[in-house]
Amino acid sequence: MYIKRLKELREDHDLKQSNIADMLKMKQPQYARYETGKRDLPLDNLITLAEFYKTSTDYILGLTDTQSPYPKKIK
After folding, report:
1. Residue 31 burial (CB < 10 Å; 0-12/13-18/19+)?
2. Fewer CB within 10 A of the end CB, N or C, for the chain?
């Protein structure tokens, strides 16, 4: 499910794969493999993308359809 969500989020923000790849400090073909499912998305990149798109990791993973992020815990 995250394959579809990654592409939708990127396109909703009018970004190219190369923009996201630069943010994640990788080459565009490597990021493209995440969107096509040819490579699993590492947890640290999942968290970075959730923070960037201001959504939850559960939304990206397809566990919820609610796009808004969870509230942060106060320490």
Report:
1. buried
2. C
Q: What is the DSSP string of 38-64?
A: SSPPPHHHHHHHHHHHTS-HHHHHTS-
Q: Which amino acid is at 66?
A: T
Scan for tokens 């996201």, then name that residue: 20
Q: What are phi and psi of 29, to 5 degrees?
A: -60, -35
Q: What is the DSSP letter of 68?
A: S
Question: What pTM did the predictor assign?
Answer: 0.88
**67 token code pair:** 């796009």
How far are the Cα atoms of 30, 34, 44, 55, 58 from residue 37, in angstroms, in the given order?
A: 11, 5, 17, 21, 17
Is pLDDT larger for residue 5 or for residue 74? Answer: 5
55-73 tens-digit pLDDT: 999 999 999 998 888 777 7
- The first and second tokens of residue 59, run together, are 């939304």
